[in-house]
Amino acid sequence: MFGYLATGVKAIDMGVPTGTAALIASLQPLATAALAGIVLREAVSKTQWVGLCFGLAGVTIAVGAGLGAAPLWGFALSFISMLSIVVATLIAKRSAQSLPLLPILAVHCIVSAILFLVLAATEGMIVPQGDAGFWLAVIWFVLFSTIGAYGFYWLCLREMSATQVASLIYLTPPVTMIWAWLMFREQISSAAIAGFGLCIVGVWLANRSR
User: Fold this and answer.
1) CB count in 10 Å sphere of residue 150
2) DSSP assignments along 110-161, one per residue
């Protein structure tokens, strides 16, 4: 959790465009599928590989306009961010499936909080703002980002293969852009709509056996 968020945010802070960061993050399903066979002995079918490639193509079309230049170290941080969630996925899949979910999330949050506290101290921003907007953001992150995103992600890993779960990440850009349209009235381009279609086809191909 710390490696995924800290390096991802820092990469964008160093100038990596959000579109490029999204493309690098979208390598996660392919990396997970490639390593699942080695680490987890999971078989990845040809149809799943085709679906993963469709999903990556869809993300490329949808957010390709965000490509741009940035320091090499910034791109390296984006790759570290992506690999962090890949490694976490493989570890979670190999660990005991009977561990209760909420205590697992609590351990994730405690460890991440300590590491982020150290990071905040080095950045000189250890004291939060404390206004209503700040606490609204905290509630949002607890309910949707932590319990919702991480909680359901680990829960899905108990019922599905690592490749199938990772393929669902391809739905992130379409859902994010739809939310941005609903909340901030951000326009959705025709290229984005075409990319969304490829993402949906790719996820369907990777999971059609279920």
Assistant:
1) 20
2) HHHHHHHHHHHHHHT--S---SHHHHHHHHHIIIIIIIIIIHHHHHHHHHS-
- Structure tokens, 152: 């359901």
Residue 62, SS3 per DSSP:
helix
Q: What is the pLDDT of residues 32-59, one digit of tens each?
A: 888 887 787 888 888 888 888 888 887 7
**What is the CA angle 126-25-101, rounded to 5?**
65
Q: Taking the CB of residue 161, how many other CB atoms lie within 10 A of it?
A: 23
Segments in the chain below pLDDT 70: 19, 62-70, 96-98, 209-210
CA dist., res. 50 & res. 142, Å (int): 35
User: One-letter amino acid identity for 141?
Assistant: F
Say how far apart CA 37 and CA 31 lie, in whole Å. 11
Q: Are 85 and 4 in contact (CB under 8 A)?
A: yes
- What is each CA distance from 68 to 21, 63, 71, 132, in whole angstroms? 10, 12, 10, 35
Going by C-alpha positions, the residue among 65, 82, 87 that lies closest to residue 169 is 82
Per-residue pLDDT tens digits for 59-82: 777 666 555 666 788 888 988 998
What are the residues whose beta carbons fall under 8 Å from the beta carbon of 23, sequence distance 6 or more? 59, 60, 63, 64, 67
